[in-house]
Amino acid sequence: MVAPQISVIIPTYNRQELTVRAIKSVLSQTFSDLECIVxxxxxxxxxxxxxxxxxxxxxxxxxxxxxxxxxARNRGIAIAQGRYLAFLDSDDEWLPRKLxxxxxxxxxxxxxxxxxxxxxxxxxxxxxxxxxxxxxxGGRIFDxxxxxCMITPSSVLLExxxxxxxxxxxxxxxxxxxxxxWLRVTSRHPVGLIEEDLLIRYGGAPDQLSGQHSxxxxxxxxxxxxxxxxxxxxxxxxxxxxxxxxxxxxxxSGCLKRGKEEEGERILAIPGEMR
Length: 275
Prior knowledge:
Blueprint: E1 6-12, H1 16-27, E2 34-41, H2 47-55, E3 60-64, H3 69-79, E4 84-87, E5 93-94, H4 98-108, E6 114-123, E7 126-128, E8 157-159, H5 160-166, H6 177-186, E9 192-203, H7 215-228, H8 235-257, H9 261-274
Parallel strand pairs: 1-2, 1-4, 2-3, 6-9
Antiparallel strand pairs: 4-8, 5-9, 6-7, 6-8
């Protein structure tokens, strides 16, 4: 069997209808040389059964015990056959020409091993404008990626070999696993940008992980990881350390104000320990 050019990986947990919408947006792509891998992360609402019945052999459905979105994505990566990987969160949706446009971009720009598109945001059912800090950029974006996550997983197309070199999603991160991965990638590689809205992101749902955990706490952890494995004194190391100092100051001070003195003092001490 000839391997597909693109492996699409969709993790899901208790999102029957949303996942159906996401899968339909994959199967309706104008670019069809793909496989669609759906990893059910231990759903308890019959999500897997519904997907198996509705899509049959059009998808590869993998079931696992509930281990989190990073484990689910990594399971998909482990069996992916495509040269390229594309991720789609189960509550997001692609426009029909997304993969066609990205494959053409990568062919025309061999200097890039990863590209993303711009996107449309909906929050609680209403279309909203992206805040300036979240607007997508291309090229060398490591400095921009320090404050917040500048790459949306659902917007990405990347060479599978890039993850073999950079490492997969960190399964110990409850949130900001994408921020952690993109720090590693953007510190080494430029990111291509297609300035066309080819992704629809839906936010504001109560089950979104980003709203259930403090993101700054995990961004601090991701920055610590990156700083620990990169050479001190490099310009990008200094930039990352400055970002760490700022996040520790804000999060640590917030902990103290909320009466979490032990956690606050621990966070505030991190930059001094890493100098």
